[in-house]
Amino acid sequence: MNSKIKQLVKTSKKVILDCCLENGAIVAGNPGNSGYLKDTPNYFYVWPRDSAFTCVALDILGMKKQVEKFFKWCSNRACDKEGLLWQHYAPNGLPTGFFISELYNNKEIKKFEKYIHPNAVYPISKSIRSQLQPDGDGLLLWALEHHIKYNKKAKDEFGELANCLANSICKIWSETNYKYLINDPWEEKIGYPGVNLTYTIATSIYGLSAADKLYGKKKIWTKTKESMEKTIQKAFDKNGNISAVFGPKYTQKNYKKLFSKMFSVGKFNPEIDASLFSVIWPAKLTNIKNQKNMLKTLIEKLDKKGGIIRYPGDSYDGIFIEGSSFRKGGNAWPLLNFWAAICLNKTGRTKEALKYYNWVLNRTDKYIPEQIDNKNMHKGPSPLIWSHAMFIIASKELGFL
Asked: Do 29 and 45 form a contact (C-beta atoms < 8 A)?
């Protein structure tokens, strides 16, 4: 391990522990950190997705107690009565979240309100409190499966949590789609009956597979997983490439209209998205040949001078200035470089994997931010726990840990 990696591992441990709170919550960023960038959003919230990746990193670092404290926090504070995990939470477990105002104006809400999950609405004011993001349930099951490799006793201790998470995925799925309005990992694109988000289905499939392996097959888990696997095959084309959005009610033209106020629509292609890396890792839903084809297409579309962006036409820059919409031009996300490196290495392209891994290291002195722009300036919240977690996971994958 070279000195730069060694020092960044040490820093990552401190950053991650700084975000692990006494009650078990794992926040996405701690603005109290002296290095936290000014003029960036407050990320002192728990995103279950970010925390699931962080749990995997914590296990790699040998810090299993923090992982188990987080699982207990989810059981006691986060999961609602149906086992659903929402967009994000205050550290005490209160669902917070938001809906994108540019998209969810009154006219659009009326259009989609029949698909909004009842638990997403405050019973008195009838206002919407948070986004439904089922990937949190699936990824937490993945993190639990990973953790049990490090501590077999955790299987019994967290069996109730696993059942709750797996059952919740099944409850919101019909034969071909989720029954409700769902949101993607970037909290921007939407899925609803007739329009599917590939990433969300992929993470749900993997979560149910993990539950199957750990706790034995249950009829409802198997039935739902098989239905999802059948559905997601429709996202693939004959060359093995896969679309981030698909379904019988999906057309690119109409879908882009939904986001006309939010994106540079001419450049926005909803079918290309870095979240599709999930189909290769951790979900492993297709063969090596298709994985290689997918990666080739994705990286060609997402590589921005060596850094990986979220999707073509991304405009979110992560910088908060009063009166700003956060949309002055999207940048590369270090965590996506690490995600690409993991996928490339798993398909035997280690040299390319190292290129994307080192792109971040060459632009990082201490903390890994949410974004890095073309001038190699750090943007968005920093340090970001998800960025540091993905660095640890990629370092393990590439043999540095």
From this structure: no
Write out pLDDT tens, residues 182-197. Answer: 999 999 899 999 999 9
- Whether 142 and 207 have beta carbons less than 8 Å apart is answered as yes
Q: How far is it, in rounded angstroms, from Cα 398 to Cα 209?
A: 25
88-114 core/surface letters (b: 16 or more CB in 10 A; e: else): bbebebebebebbeebbeeebeeeeee
Token pair in block for residue 29: 């960023």
Distance, CA of 353 to CA of 331 (rounded, Å): 20
- The CATH number for 64's domain is 1.50.10.10
Cα gap 138→161, rounded to integer Å: 12
Model confidence over 226-251: pLDDT tens digits? Answer: 999 999 999 998 777 899 999 999 99
Q: How many residues does the chain have?
A: 401
Tokens of 293: 């084809």
Residue with tokens 């409802």: 220
Q: How many domains does the chain have?
A: 1
User: What would the two tokens of residue 350 be?
Assistant: 């280690």
DSSP string for 95-157:
B-----TTTS-HHHHHHHGGGS-GGGB-TTT--B---B-THHHHHHHHHHHHHHTT-TTHHHH
3-state helix, strand, coil in the chain (%, to 5): 45, 10, 45
N-term to C-term CA, the chain? 8
Q: What is the pTM of this model?
A: 0.96
Domain that holds residue 67: 3-397
